[in-house]
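Convert to structure. Protein one:
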Amino acid sequence: MSSAGAPRVTMAEVARRSGVSPMTVSYCYNQPDRVAPDTLRRVREVAAALGYRGPDPTARSLRRRRTGAIGVVLGEHLAYAFEDPQARRFLTGVAEVCRERGIGLNLIPTTGEEQDVERVRSASVDGYIVWTTVDTDPVLDVVGGLGKPVAVHGGPAVGGAEVVGIDNRASARELAARTFPGARRPSVLAFPFDRDRRPRLETGPDAARVAFPVTRDRLQGVYDHCRDVGRDPAGLPVAVVARNDREEAAALADLLLDACDTDAVVAMSDQLAFAVLDAARRRGLRVPADVAVAGWDDGPDALREGLTTITQSLLDQGRACALIALGDRGPGGAAEWTATVRTSTR
């Protein structure tokens, strides 16, 4: 294995040890579909033994070895960046920093496929931003091992990276305390639990098995409040959506109001909260007398809807992540948040 101070292992050395040409080694990293599976496996094994991490995508760039771009690993299909309100505000903050610094922005969608790792590794960028993903995402090991600055929005934590985001557990505990008082049948409308994104209704699911850190922390925070007031979270209905989408969440909002007869809902975003408000209006229910509703983010429509919500600036968090990806020191860590109480809760 190579070590600090040792000469950098070259592609030529990997080729010689593998019994192939340097061009074949290059193909193994840049166009692996052009290489026979056995050859690809042999080259990768030799490279791992030598400590070779693959060709440096900045090698042909400026003398300062910078590409003039940062990469955002979405963990979603590309259209998500334009469809999801949270992602749009976050990426607006990233784009502001890119404009101010005169650098490019590379969106790198990953969806759990085998090609994800190669796509991320070969991106010609100076640093990475990872939109919140599951704890076991192999992309995390890749970005953490390239020797480039990495910011992870919302978690999970990974060695060599800075996590940027609010304290989701504390904010959830506070939001539940604003939403559940006076409720006999409170419930949660939750983000996806894992990458299968299967919409469903569960009762008191184990928060520890939730793969997405933001969802896990918010669910744990709601449970914390339940225990604070002597309510058993094991009986709490939790509806899980496939996406953070108002229209797609409508069926689960209906399920909570009908099958669960809920009278208070903590939704994990404003968009999900709006779906509950829509369902309440269709039934002629009074908000908050018949059903109290709260969300997260305090987006542009929250004030108009009178929504109680957790106020945070995803734009500022996007800016913070971009600065970290560019190699600046801060600001990282916990971002600011506050509970903004309006007329949707009692």
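Protein two, convert as well:
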Amino acid sequence: MTTLSRRAFATAAMASLLVGCDGNGDDGRRTTARPVTTSPSARPSAKPARALGRSVPVRLRIPAIGVDTPLMRLGLASDGSVQVPPVTANDRAGWYRHSPTPGQTGPSVILGHATVGAYGDGVFRHLARLRRGERIEARLENGTTALFSVGSVRTVAKADFPVDAVYGDVDRPELRLITCGGPRTGDGYRDNVIVFAALSSTSR
């Protein structure tokens, strides 16, 4: 984990996932994060490659669902929650800059919208369609591409967001992709879609 403590990261991350990740506003719910522990049952099973050094991700490609997006950097909002990408016509995903970079040991976190208000579909609109073994490519600032293999895709109620499984420490390079999903509830969505993936190889 970089910059933030495990507990602070989990608390901030939980706040971000319960508010506005679909670009349509706050669903009004808050949950207190528990202390973080690793959840082996939620970890992807793909054989990981050797960990990489730190290099900021600049682009994300997911061929199976047609995602090819520049990555913006996300920090913390004034209320202490994790920022989400702005609602724009040209929607982009964002990497949370206090998490490891893709390929470093630990869970690297990338967030994206399912919908972007009046602009329609968001960059992660088809995230729930991903299947085990499908490829995710994170292009890094140093020219390396970190290749990840999907281990599992989970749709969970926001009220039951699995903080430990998503943000807990792990001993290998992993990736978490997160968006909203499930049925609409007022101005938001009831659930979150979470993709768990592990580093499988690298290329240049």
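DSSP finds two helices and eight strands in the chain. The helical segments are 6-17, 163-167.
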